[in-house]
Amino acid sequence: MASIPLPALDRPLTAPYWAAAREQRLMVQQCNACQTRQWPPKPVCSTCLREMTADDWVEVEPTGTVWSFIVYHRAFHPGFADRLPYNVAMVRLDAGPMVITNVVDCEKPVIGQRVTARFCPEGDEAVLVRFAPVA
Ligand SMILES: [Zn+2]
Asked: Which positions fall inside the ChsH2 rubredoxin-like zinc ribbon domain (predicted)?
């Protein structure tokens, strides 16, 4: 059985995010100059264009709201074949940034639904941040 594609955990740009996820914490980049929060991580601040460093990270509340989603009924990678159907959702974090994720533990996401993070081990070392409806 094929596995899903997993992220490289040791790239300097994204390593803080993956390390925090392994500790069940959610982090986003936050520019130390202008306080802009952004996800996914970028080499420069999207507001003031300052070069981001390993210090430009902040832990945020792992909560948000479903902004949009789509349900896949066809596997475009063999690793997803046994997961069909599955959703890919855009969740607006309460902390600001929008993340692309999956909403789990529900039949189908609902736009506007409140969600909280689920830290899901995948493969040997990765922990993916998915979201589930707030009970
Ligand atoms: Zn900035």
From this structure: 18-50
The CA 30 to ligand 1 mean position distance, Å, reads: 8
Domain range holding 100?
15-133
10 located within any domain: no
The contacts of residue 25 (CB under 8 Å, 6+ apart) are: 59, 62
pLDDT at 1 > cutoff 80: no
- Tell me how far the alpha carbon of residue 40 lies from the centroid of ligand 1, in angstroms: 15
Q: What is the pLDDT of residues 7-65, one digit of tens each?
A: 999 999 999 999 999 999 999 999 999 999 999 999 999 999 999 999 999 999 999 99
- Phi first, then psi: give them for residue 107, nearest 5 degrees: -60, -50
Residue 7 covered by a domain: no
Domain total of the chain = 1
